[in-house]
Amino acid sequence: MTVRPEDLQLLVTRVMPYGKYKGRLIADLPGQYLNWFSREGFPSGELGGLLALMQELDHNGLSSLLDPLRTATKHDARQPPGGAHVTKM
Description:
Distance between the termini: 52 Å
Structural class: mainly alpha
Strand content: under 5%
Largest sheet: none
Oligomer: single chain
């Protein structure tokens, strides 16, 4: 499995589109749910790849590697578009 940096960013920004945990960030899905997908089969496409990646991180105790990305994502969300600071005149 090749891990791309942008895939790690997607784990902390993309939400589960359906099921019991619909609307929850993929990075916040419970381990037992991820393990269920591992046993039963991941969906096809990008979502399946992200779920498989998150399951590997969770299974190996590496979920905390996403913490800096969570912080960066929260910081970026507070910036105006383009990252520029808006000043009033």
